[in-house]
Amino acid sequence: MSERTVQLVLHYDGGHFAGWQRQPNVRTVQGVIEETLSRLCNTETRATGAGRTDAGVHARGQAVGATVPAGWTADKLRRALNALLPDDVWVVAAHEMDPSFHARYSALSRRYTYRVGTDDEARSPFRARWEWAIQRPLDREALDLSADAILGDHCFRAYAVRGTAPETDDHRCIVHSAHWGERPGGLTFEIEANRFLHHMVRFVVGAMVAAASGARGRSAVMELLEAQDNAGTPAPAPAHGLCLEHVEYPRGLYREMT
Which residue from 32, 52, 134, 255 puts its CA 20 to 30 A from 106's CA? Predict the structure, then answer.
């Protein structure tokens, strides 16, 4: 049977998922996607994500790779999936890809945002699910200095969960962009890098907020780049403020855009 390689771009609310990765006896995004793909393709169908988002983390640009029977065009598959998927998952786009495409290993970069609420309404049930409500004042200049400090090629060992990367991994990541922006009711941190370690963005945001609130010195984020472990790293920011926004791939991998 001839086959087709597709990339699915997902939106999902991570609030009712135990993360991306398939696990027994719990609801995960990968599990829901694979169950629906298998139903449509009438055979067990695997889905590979560009990033393994944790429980509570959201996505507006999670990229997923799958191999399906050739009768499923990208557009036809998108429409069929959206007719069957639960309300907290939606396929925003689908692309036919070169067979060499791999959702994780072909990625050039990933971009995340983290939302911090600084006004009183950040505790509203209409906002609290998607942003970290912080009631203490934050030094905006300290946030900007911290964002500048992580730009470029650094070892992020202090900003990762210990034991989740091989001992031989140097924990180095190249941060292409990192900045804080104002929005009504709060701030948004945006970061793009060639790779991310487990909990890296949440650890980075937690350290930046600690520096900006006076719990740590202004240079804390820079100093932690020299640390050999995360023993002195502030607690990571809550998962629910984090969102995977976009995954970039070489244009040559796209067969068609639909």
Answer: 32
CATH code where residue 183 lies: 3.30.70.660
150 and 202 co-located in one domain: yes
Per the structure, the complete domain to which residue 214 belongs is given by 109-245
Tens of pLDDT, residues 120-167: 999 999 999 999 999 889 999 999 999 999 999 999 999 998 877 777
**Among this protein's residues, is 13 annotated catalytic?**
no
Report the domain count for the chain: 2
Q: HSE (CB half, 13 Å, CA atoms) of 170?
A: 6
Q: 230 and 127 share a domain? A: yes
Here the tokens at position 61 are 């640009």
Q: Catalytic residue among 13, 54, 98, 148, which?
A: 54
254, part of any domain: no
Contact residues for 192 (Cβ-Cβ < 8 A; gap 6+):
109, 110, 111, 112, 175, 176, 177, 178
CB 138 within 8 A of CB 180: no
Helix intervals (H) in the chain: 29-41, 74-84, 140-149, 200-213, 220-224
pLDDT-derived band at 169 (thresholds 50, 70, 90) equals confident
What's the whole-model pTM score?
Answer: 0.94
Q: List the structure tokens of 226.
A: 């020299």
